[in-house]
From TrEMBL:
It comes from Perkinsus olseni (Perkinsus atlanticus). One of its GO terms (molecular function) is protein-L-isoaspartate (D-aspartate) O-methyltransferase activity. InterPro entries: PCMT, SAM-dependent_MTases_sf. One of its GO terms (biological process) is methylation. Belongs to the methyltransferase superfamily. L-isoaspartyl/D-aspartyl protein methyltransferase family. GO terms for cellular component: cytoplasm. This is protein-L-isoaspartate(D-aspartate) O-methyltransferase.
Amino acid sequence: MLGYGIRASTQVELVEQLKQRGFIRNPKVSEAMSQVDRARFLPRGATDPYSNTPVKVSEGSSISTPQLHAQVLELLSPALDSDAAPRSFLDFGCGTGYLASVAAEMGIDRVIASECDT
C-alpha cells in the first residue's frame, strides 16, 4: 500500500492519516510520531512539512517520507513490548535526526545517531 495523497496541516493529522492507511498500528508509534513535529527538522521555508514526500535538506541529503519513518518505527515496536533490556537503536546516516528523535520518544533506552557528511 502506498501513501500517495497523504497531506495534512498538522503533525497529529499526518499521524492520523498514516494510521488510516495502515502504516501505523502500534499506539507507541502513533504517540511518539505525534509528539515529534516533523516541521522542526526541515529547512526554514520548506513547504508541505506534513505531506508524505521526502524533503531536500541540503545538497545530496533529504528527510525521508513520514510513511518510511512509520514503517521503520513499526519494525522497532516489538522490542518495546518485550522485556529485553537494554534496548538500543543505531540510526546511521541519520540526516536531520528525526527518526532517532522519534525512536527516543518511543522509549528506546539508548539511541545513537550518526551522520557522515561528504
